[in-house]
């Protein structure tokens, strides 16, 4: 058993403790069934081993490993308490695995009785838990099969098995082996003990597991409301890998069914949750967590982000996991069409085109609650295609005009979170425009302001510019070509070939919209510095964008007069394409 050491602490806090108290205490430690899997990499295990050896060698008396946040689940009076781990999964699992490896090493060293005592005290419990397994640590479903492999190896060791006779062992219910980090790090821990025992025998093993249990210090935070866990975690860990609303939602969906029937939980995960969850993933990005704030605002427009999960939880009440997933999926196709593109909502082609415009214009997230509801109403027939398309045109004009003028998105949240309710079942372009214009602190740019921005504002590098050129070049009813590059006609740093511009004119002209052209391929750095005659020949051959070809066709010389002429033409086109709102 561990060498007898006094309780070593870094603080006087009663919340500071060690793993001997946590793993040998009066509770089972449960990681939510569908929590992310254990993932400590080799470098972290190596650092833990160095920290333990410093303790063993007396270089340190105690080593602080952070905080564990937990929430006690309801249990019967005759049952062992169950603490759900909100944060601390990685550290707890690692210490548990290194204890398992210590038991393995002791058994090999001929210390079977000591190994069996450690097993009965820290690895399993004989007190009823109300669960199907009596392991002290019960990991997420994805890690359960691998931990069962570890426990089976220990309990079937010929050196240890006789000492465990009479020990009650119920393995974890999910037995699918994943060959993940649980097995990998357990094997590493066994190698660590093997190397150390070669130097100091069973005494060295004993010193190591004593340090592991008694000299690794941790602060335990027991929260009454599990939704507060991520807030505390963020503060303690400088926002490194925080739990998200999506994590909380997933854990809540499966909590009751996972406790009572893990096989059913796995079936629900496969048949209902995974199709819902995987739809949020693209090759390069996962939009799952981004869905819940706009979804929550649809249900309660005044929610703060921190209030989304508690509000949804109250709405779900005693709904089954499948019913919860079905309720979450109501606006999923509308959200995905807006942020990823496509037509999961099966809209008319004219609506698909308008939704895609908003996506390409870098739609602010604040507009999602209104647009998700509009899309849903259009696909269910509550709003007709004609009025719906008109509303989308109004939103496009409002947001694009603001972007051209450089207005910050500040205040848009207040506009859009209640816009659906503010329209009071009267969903027309005129009504939507009128409701937006009621927000006096959020400007709808006038024609004069938009004209001034097109003529004078330095727009090079603005995220709206590719969208402007796509739309001004678009063929009616067709999705436009992607803009791969926006080139300055007058280069950013012109050489002697551009003497038709004074230094002041260069500074005032090079970043104007009129000096920019869209390209379907990125040019070389040499091409960017070419004289206009050479650029003109290249622009004339641009395959996708007629506005670029028209620069070559209309302007034999690129000077301040040419820039002014094109600016006036772009001004007319922009005001025609994105007119002032109605109402």
How would you explain this protein's 3D organization?
With 583 residues, the protein is an alpha/beta fold. It has 4 domains: 221 residues, no CATH class; 81 residues, no CATH class; 104 residues, no CATH class; 128 residues, no CATH class. A 6-stranded mixed beta sheet has the order 1-6-3-4-2-5, with helices on both faces. A two-stranded antiparallel ribbon has the order 7-8.
Sequence-ordered SSE layout with sheet pairings:
Blueprint: E1 16-18, H1 19-23, E2 27-30, H2 42-56, E3 63-73, E4 81-87, H3 89-108, H4 112-123, E5 137-138, H5 141-155, H6 181-215, E6 216-222, H7 229-236, H8 245-260, H9 262-278, H10 292-299, H11 308-316, H12 321-328, H13 332-339, H14 349-360, H15 368-379, H16 385-405, H17 412-416, H18 419-422, H19 429-437, H20 447-456, H21 465-473, E7 485-488, H22 503-509, E8 516-519, H23 525-528, H24 532-540, H25 546-554, H26 560-577
Parallel strand pairs: 2-4, 2-5, 3-6
Antiparallel strand pairs: 1-6, 3-4, 7-8
């Amino acid at each position: 058993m561990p060498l007898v050491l006094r309780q070593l602490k870094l603080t006087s806090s009663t919340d500071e403790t060690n793993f001997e108290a946590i793993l040998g205490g009066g509770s089972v430690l449960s990681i939510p069934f569908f929590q992310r899997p254990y993932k400590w990499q080799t470098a972290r295990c190596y650092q833990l081993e160095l920290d333990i050896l410093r303790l063993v060698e007396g270089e340190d008396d105690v080593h602080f490993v952070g905080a564990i946040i937990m929430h006690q689940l309801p249990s019967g009076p005759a049952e062992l308490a169950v603490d759900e781990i909100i944060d601390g999964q990685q550290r707890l699992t690692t210490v548990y695995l290194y204890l398992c490896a210590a038991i393995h090493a002791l058994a090999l060293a001929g210390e079977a009785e000591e190994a069996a005592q450690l097993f009965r005290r820290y690895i399993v419990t004989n007190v009823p838990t109300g669960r199907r397994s009596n392991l002290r640590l019960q990991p997420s479903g994805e890690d359960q099969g691998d931990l069962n492999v570890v426990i089976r190896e220990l309990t079937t060791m010929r050196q240890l098995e006789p000492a465990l006779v009479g020990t009650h062992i119920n393995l974890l219910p999910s037995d699918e082996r994943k060959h993940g980090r649980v097995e990998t790090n357990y094997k590493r821990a066994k190698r660590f003990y093997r190397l150390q025992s070669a130097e100091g025998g069973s005494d060295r093993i004993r010193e190591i597991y004593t340090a592991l249990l008694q000299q690794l210090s941790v602060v335990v935070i027991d929260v009454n409301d599990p939704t507060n866990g991520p807030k505390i975690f963020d503060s303690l860990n400088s926002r490194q890998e925080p739990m998200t609303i999506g994590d909380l939602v997933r854990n809540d969906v499966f909590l009751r069914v996972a406790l009572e029937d893990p096989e059913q939980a796995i079936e629900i995960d496969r048949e209902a949750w995974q199709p819902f969850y995987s739809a949020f993933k693209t090759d390069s990005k996962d939009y799952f967590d981004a869905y819940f704030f706009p979804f929550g605002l649809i249900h309660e427009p005044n929610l703060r982000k921190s209030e989304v999960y508690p509000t949804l939880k109250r709405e779900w009440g005693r709904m089954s996991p499948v019913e919860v997933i079905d309720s979450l999926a109501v606006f999923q196709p509308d959200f995905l069409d807006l942020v990823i593109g496509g037509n999961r909502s099966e809209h008319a082609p004219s609506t698909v085109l308008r939704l895609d415009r908003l996506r390409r214009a870098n739609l602010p997230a604040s507009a999602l609650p209104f647009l998700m509801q509009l899309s849903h109403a259009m696909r269910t027939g509550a709003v007709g295609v004609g009025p719906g398309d008109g509303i989308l045109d109004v939103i496009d004009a409002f947001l694009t005009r603001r972007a051209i003028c450089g207005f910050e998105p500040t205040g848009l949240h207040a506009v859009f979170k209640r816009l659906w309710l503010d329209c009071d079942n009267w969903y027309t372009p005129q009504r939507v425009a009128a409701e937006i214009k009621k927000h006096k602190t959020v400007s709808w740019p006038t024609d004069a302001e938009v004209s001034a921005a097109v003529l004078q504002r330095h727009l090079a590098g603005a995220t709206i510019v590719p969208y402007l050129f796509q739309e001004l070049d678009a063929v009616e009813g067709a999705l436009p070509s992607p803009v791969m590059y926006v080139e300055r006609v007058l280069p950013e740093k012109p050489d002697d070939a551009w003497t038709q511009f004074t230094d002041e004119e260069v500074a005032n002209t090079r970043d104007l919209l009129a000096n920019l052209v869209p390209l379907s391929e990125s040019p070389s750095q040499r091409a960017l510095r070419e004289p206009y005659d050479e650029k003109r020949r290249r622009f004339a051959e641009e395959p996708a964008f007629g506005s670029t070809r028209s620069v070559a066709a209309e302007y034999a010389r690129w000077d301040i007069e040419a820039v002014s002429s094109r600016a006036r033409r772009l001004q007319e086109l922009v005001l025609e394409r994105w007119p002032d709102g109605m109402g």
